[in-house]
Amino acid sequence: MKPKEQIKNILATDCGSTTTKAILIQYDPEAGRYRLIVRGEAPTTVEAPFEDVTIGVLNSVKEVEELTHREILQQDKIIKESSENRGVDIYISTSSAGGGLQMMVAGVVMNMTAESAERAALGAGSIVMDAIATNDKRMPHERIERIRNLRPDMILLSGGIDGGTIKHVTELAEIIAAADPKPRFGSTYKLPVIYAGNKDAREPVKERLEGKTDLFIVDNLRPVLERENLQPARDKIHDLFMEHVMAQAPGYKKLMSWADVDIMPTPGAVGLLIETVAKQEDIEVVGVDIGGATTDVFSVFKDRTEEEEKPVFNRTVSANLGMSYSISNVMAEAGLDNILRWVPFTMEEKDLRNRIRNKMIRPTTIPQSLQELKVEQAIAREALRLAFVQHKQMAVGLKGIQQERTIADAFEQVSTGETLVNLMNLNMLIGSGGVLSHAPRRAQAALMMIDAFLPQGITMLAVDSIFMMPHLGVLSKVHPQAATEVFDNDCLIRLGHCIAPVEKKRRKGGEHCFTLKIENRDELKIAWGELKLIPLGEGEKVKATIIPERHYDVGDGYGKSITITLEGGVVGLVVDARGRNPFSLPSKLEERINKLEQWNKALNIYPEKE
Amino acid sequence: MAHAYTPGLKVTARTVLRKERRLPLKGKVMVSEIGTKVKAEQIVARTELPGNVLPLNLAGKLGCDARDVKGNLKVKIGDKIAKHQLIAETKGLLGLFKSSVRSPLDGSLESVSDITGQAILREPPQPVETDAYIEGKVVEIIPDEGVIIETVCTFIQGIFGIGGEIRGEIYPVVEQPDQELTVELLNEDCRDKIVIGGSFCTAPVLEKAVQVGARAVVVGGIDDEDLKNFLGYDVGVAITGNEQMGITLVVTEGFGKIPMANKTFRLLQEKKGYYASVNGATQIRAGVMRPEVIITLEEDQSMKTTGSAESGMMEVGTPVRIIREPYFGELGKVAELPPHPMKIETEAKTRVVKVKLDDGKEVLLPRANVELIEE
């Protein structure tokens, strides 16, 4: 690879389960920064009849060539010498095609070491197929059966703090050995098992698993109860992902030889980028990437249970919530009624069912009519909502820690393992993935995110402009400056702040909720139930005071006013006083459709049809 | 760009097809020579799946320390054991108050741990066999794993299916591709047959097909509601093939009432009475798998194989089918391929294709929403 200062032309691809996306980034000497030039895409070709991921990569790069008139390929190979109109300096890639990385984890206690192991696997970009623990209420033979049937790509075995139990960890190793698991991609190689548990149990684990599996030993991921050490396990997962999983998928050996740095799992790369943003700006962030097969949710929230607030990164993947391959599962999990509640016209259940199924079996099609778009966005709301519910359950503080309590704590009854997700503290919500990034109007993405996540207080809404966070995530490993510059200027589109008061209990529609005083503008009175768009353009910032009524909280407590700087965006300032405790839609069909139409109009979501 | 890559399903009158028949784990290949002709039902590889295991807490049952379990064993590790056989016993006190453990199964003692005190007992191995699935000749032997079989056949891929591999005679019961498959059309004559329907079938039709002993149903479309009613549950992720419904279903076009493509219907009709291998297994993720109908033909190398619709180039004049609302299922020909992305009704900017429908009407569609077909 060339030295960093000589890198001027960067080609990056992301091989998704449905489409392969290529972007070209160039250094612009006039602006003195790196910028996104163009994006090309083509269907992913991991599957028959092609069964070679590189064909999709080449097709997407050909589109980049056509759009830029730059010659990048020569005899179906990437030209790695760049001149003014030819070649690139570096080629990098991420991938989630072929089902991504699928793992099983095991730990002694379900909500302690097994949960830590799950977090390590998720953080590395994996789907966790199952977590096994000595207290998972299953009989040993049931666990063995499960390991045998699932055929994961690899297993992460943890358990016991250093110096803790050896017996239980050994028992888990015995179960894995007895199952004699086979990897997903055929029987030609041994299943990789990573051991990241009690260091005193390494020998008995080795005795039981070495030879039967491909065993790797790394530092304990939970050396003491109070601390996780997930990085060594995560790094090992990445190495093995490349060596074992990727190398088995069709065409990946060739792709790996083209790439200048290791191919990263797509969610691993997005997570890395979100973690970096939160750190750089010192903010609390939720990011979501909704794909065809899976939906990933990333968050960085501060753990306020400790004296020194420290940011905690979490990632969850909802393996079967997505907009194409997994779209039927959204219907199965959310239920048809929950999807239909977002559809602003009458629709027969039978019709919806067939449409969803046809999207599943032909996943690369796109909505052509406005009606189809509305249906697709209704499904997206439910996929996002369900993925966030799962994230809140997983993004929790460490459980099982002894806490020093004062008398005051005893009254509060704060327990360990509470969710870290506090929407009132959330500063930024970033949406990514086809249905959000490619929504024809940005306001559609804004409302989909508000409806699904129900942000509270003041939250900046943003989207990944053209779905390039994975590319930038892997780029941040080799060229952080280029990644940051492109992220700030070309990738992150700020939609605008959302103001959403939280009521103590359900209120009556029309009741006065809060007053918004924006400097040099007329005072605004907002009623409960209202959704409103206030014009405030991209980059525009205004000083404002929000005075809530005594039953409403906008961030500082019930009835407490706040003075803050509000920022606009491509959508504007969104005021959402539709309620949070709980947010609900009218149950009567006609009323509900009227309400949806009213909200869609308020944010000018859809074009008026003649 | 005057052309574009577009996916499609394989529907071909004559092609050379290869199928890999592999054991789930290593075993014995039953065919020793390349070139051996095999029948569809013939077993080509055999192995033994290690038996189920049962962990037994010997230390707990004997009431002794985990380290002392091995000393109390009455059989050796690796020994065969019979159900109710004494496998461990403590010495007791002066020969009295002994604790003993008897085997709960026929099998063998695989291991005993001196850390956990657990014994792992294993049941006898279960035989697993792989058959040829299609009639043809062996062109490659994968040592210890299986074979690759080649056949000259009519090959039809469906879009979605349920149920696994099955074989039977092709038996069309409708006259036209747009005719519905109804309960009245199914009778005892359908027993052991691959029933070819037209545009649509319902859950009661599938139930009747099971009742009359049909092995498979091939049809243009089905309502998802009917599929749910037939299966008794909603298909979540599109991975099918293991349903135990007593029948295999292959849907060739999609969900809803959609006439079977002319070419598919014609091919199936021409092959009435031929023996076919059918598989409903569908996987639309991690290595796509579509349901299929394979009709082995008399081998005649002098005859050329025909092309297939599959994936290929789309050009002006190429026949296409629209695969998304609002023109879902309609057929037409490519009239124009505008090179630049254009705005469609949703306001999205995308690459488009102008299609002249069979009724003469011209419509502008996203390129992603058409697939190639053969006339």
Written description of the protein model:
The complex is a heterodimer of chains A (610) and B (375). Chain A has 610 residues and is of the alpha/beta class. Chain A contains 18 helices and 26 strands. With 375 residues, chain B is mainly beta. Among the domains of chain B are: 53-122, OB fold (Dihydrolipoamide Acetyltransferase, E2P) (Beta Barrel); 159-290, Glucose Oxidase, domain 1; 315-372, SH3 type barrels (Roll). Helix content of chain B is 8%, strand content 39%. Chain B contains 4 helices and 30 strands. Chain B has helices spanning 58-62, 203-211, 224-231, 262-270; strands at residues 4-6, 11-22, 28-29, 37-38, 43-49, 53-57, 80-81, 86-89, 100-102, 107-112, 118-122, 126-131, 136-142, 146-157, 160-162, 166-172, 193-196, 200-201, 216-222, 248-255, 275-279, 292-296, 312-314, 319-322, 331-336, 342-343, 349-350, 352-357, 362-366, 370-372.
Largest interface: which pair? A-B, 66 and 60 residues
Strand content of chain A: 15-25%
Total of helices of chain A: 18
Enumerate the spans of chain A where pLDDT stays under 50 for 5 or more consecutive residues: 403-415
- Order of strands across the main sheet of chain A: 15-14-13-16-17-18-26-22
CATH hierarchy class name of the domain at 159-290 in chain B: Alpha Beta
Poorly predicted sequence stretches spanning 5 or more consecutive residues of chain B: 1-5
Looking at how many chains there are and whether they match, the oligomeric state comes to heterodimer
What's the architecture of the domain at 159-290 in chain B in CATH terms?
A: 3-Layer(bba) Sandwich
Q: What Rg of chain A do the Cα atoms give?
A: 25 Å
Decide which structural class fits the backbone of chain A.
alpha/beta
Q: The CATH topology of the domain at 159-290 in chain B, please?
A: Glucose Oxidase, domain 1
Q: Helix fraction of chain A? A: 25-40%
Task: Please state the CA-atom Rg of chain B, rounded to the nearest Å.
Answer: 28 Å
Mean pLDDT, all residues of chain B: 88
Q: What is the 3D form of chain A?
A: globular
The tally of beta strands of chain A, per DSSP, is 26
* Cα end-to-end separation of chain A: 56 Å
The residue-averaged pLDDT of chain A reads 88
* Residues in helix, % of chain B: under 10%
Q: Which term fits the overall shape of chain B?
A: elongated
